[in-house]
Design goal:
Blueprint: E1 11-14, H1 24-42, H2 46-60, H3 69-76, H4 80-86, H5 97-106, E2 110-115, H6 119-128, E3 137-140, H7 151-161, E4 168-171, H8 175-184, E5 188-192, E6 209-210
Parallel strand pairs: 1-2, 1-4, 2-3, 4-5, 5-6
Length: 222
């Protein structure tokens, strides 16, 4: 686990899915629940549903449409919001994420959630897991019109928040997004070792990774 120099960090930027929340909900929804409901709705087999959906997912990965519930509702002729509610019981906090958030707040750090999730997804998750009070702002990339993978997201975020990138910590489970943040000049970056509790640890390449949020509390004082 990395040790952080908290005296050099003023702003903490945190991803949601796979970082604070277990990615199992999202993986199960997109890879299991949605294809099954799509097959039922359109009268095709599950194998046919997968054959139709997976190329679509690949085509839009990393773009704002990939994260947009309105886009997928139109594209698939299904209410993605309603389908997500069917499996909302799977939304779960990653271990000790709330302990970490409380410690950041007590230490007087500026804490902002930045997610690619659509506002409707964000609202559903905040209904299930009460995290909003820990944050100064809850920002969806849809607010700016660019996903976090895009350099223009970071320019818009900086213009909006007015923070010092060199004195910011950003934690995310996506390597392309972390690389985008690094290119912008975010000074402190951490990946997530096990974003989906059902899939085991993953390779985080050149990035140090969070394995236990309690281990980050060393040196974080009120």
């Amino acid at each position: 686990m990395p040790s952080l120099n908290w005296s050099a960090i003023d702003t903490v930027l945190l991803d949601m899915d796979g970082t604070l929340l277990d990615l199992h909900f999202d993986n199960h929804f997109w890879l299991e629940h949605l294809p099954q409901r799509y097959a039922e709705h359109h009268g095709v087999t599950r194998a046919q549903a997968d054959a139709e959906l997976l190329p679509l997912f690949r085509d839009h990965a990393g773009q704002l449409n990939w994260y947009c519930l309105d886009f997928w509702s139109r594209e698939l002729k299904l209410s993605i919001r309603d389908l997500k509610r069917e499996v909302a019981h799977l939304i779960a906090l990653r271990p000790d994420a709330d302990t970490f958030l409380a410690a950041l707040r007590n230490a007087g750090k500026r804490v902002v959630l930045i997610t690619n999730a659509h506002r409707d997804s964000l609202s559903l998750k905040m209904e299930r897991i009460e995290l909003a009070p820990y944050f100064e702002r809850l920002i969806s990339s849809h607010d700016y019109g660019f996903p976090k993978e895009d350099p223009q997201f970071w320019q818009a975020l900086h213009a909006d928040l007015g923070f010092d990138p060199a004195r910011a910590l950003f934690i995310d489970d996506s390597l392309p997004i972390l690389r985008s943040a690094r290119a912008f000049g975010i000074g402190h970056l951490l990946a997530v070792r096990e974003p989906d509790s059902r899939q085991g640890p993953k390779d985080t390449a050149e990035f140090a990774a969070v394995e236990d949020y309690r281990a980050l509390l060393d040196g974080l004082h009120p």
